[in-house]
Amino acid sequence: MLTADIPHPADRRAMPWSARRICSVFLLAVIATVWYPATATAHAALESSEPAGGDIVPASPPFVTVRFTEPLERSYSRMVLHDSAGNPVAGTTLSEGDDAFTMRLALPANLGNGTYSILWRTLSTADGHTAQNYFAFTIGSNADIASVVIPGAASAEATASQWARTLSRWAALVGLALLLAAWPVWSEVVRPALGGVWRSGPGFVRRMKRYVAIATFLAIGGSLAALVVQSFAIADGSPFDKVLNTLGQTRYGRLWLARIALIVISALVLAACGWWFTRRREAEGVAAWIVAAALPIPFSLIAHAAAQRNGRLFAVAADSVHLFAASLWIGGLAILAFVLLPGLRGLEPLQRRHVLAIAIPRFSVLALISMASIGITGFYAGWLHVGNLTALRTTDYGKTLIVKLAVL
């Protein structure tokens, strides 16, 4: 065991707390960069319609068929016919279209000449986002064109604000990162660095177990917040009914339940791991790695990657790798800041240097692998969602991608 003259208490505390502050600030910067909410901009938007917006048709069509850019959650998605005054027209029937991207509205027979509008709202099964808009068409001739009262101002439903969506998403992702990184960073970085200070091992293990408990609480709490925000955006009824309808009737709800199940399984597996004598419970350690790798999958299955019509499986896999790498990096910084560095306060200076001489290079390798994975999968996501240099420079998603890659 390394020994040295006992320093003044203030000197003993200075290094860990200063490093902890630096690490905490860097952690916040990384979170803001990697998970900037520009990833939440796509929706099931209108792709085409028959009749199209602005069309003039000579006679009342039997149907209005609308195709959207993402697959639809049928329990929420709607189309309503309005007259030029903005009043709903009775006698319509909504049905599914030819595929998951299409809705068809049967119109009443012999609609009178004039301008009509279709108010539509959608919930994407791919990313769980909602959208609402309208388009207008005219029956008759140019003489029958009339200005329309925009529908939706009176019939639009209360939805959660974008800030609520963003904050709940961040809360869920931060909880994911803190929990996912627990065993990989402990087993590959922290525990190997503590071999020379084994007498202090119980204290580090206690800190790590507290960290896991807090991370589990934050992961569940962040996901609960995301569920509540999602339920207010997509369902009718009382708040309790909204949550139940979201869980029971939407793909988002089913994937949310899978997310919570994985979080609980992760907590149980971590509780069974051998935190100090890791080799005595190797099976539990392997299981902890497997569960950590699985944790991002429910998130990716409700992300924009899941909306890809071609190469969906590869896109979801790439998004999961992106989330895993980002979580490993961010969660690793949190473990260094709130587990390792505070625990070094009770050690001698030579002991601290010995621990950091092992921990820092090992974490650097982990961080470099994570950054490379984030960069590669980020380029791939940019290619999928941006597609050209003009969009890279002009869209919010493209600009944010440039910032992320510049920081990396």
Give the overall average pLDDT.
84
Beta-strand level of the residues, as a percent range? Answer: 5-15%
Radius of gyration: 27 Å
Low-confidence segments: 1-17, 33-41, 154-158
Number of helices: 12
Shape: elongated
First-to-last CA distance: 38 Å
**What is the element string, with H for helices and E for strands?**
HEEEEEEEEHHHHHHHHHHH
Look at the helices and sheets and give the structural class: alpha+beta
Largest sheet: 4 strands, antiparallel
Q: Give the proportion of residues in helices.
A: 55-70%
Number of strands: 8
**Strand line-up across the major sheet:** 1-3-6-5
Q: How many structural domains does the protein architecture include?
A: 2
Description:
- With 408 residues, the chain is α+β, with helices and mostly antiparallel strands.
- It has 2 domains: 9-34 and 160-407, no CATH class; 46-144, Immunoglobulin-like, CATH 2.60.40.1220.
- It has helices at 9-34, 162-180, 182-193, 201-234, 239-249, 251-272, 282-294, 297-300, 312-343, 349-385, 389-394, 396-407; strands at residues 46-50, 56-57, 63-68, 78-82, 93-96, 102-106, 114-123, 130-139.
- A 4-stranded antiparallel β-sheet has the order 1-3-6-5, with no helix packed on it. The protein has a 4-stranded mixed β-sheet with strand order 2-8-7-4, with no helix packed on it.
- A hairpin with a 5-residue loop joins strand 5 and strand 6.
- Residues 43-139 form the CopC domain.
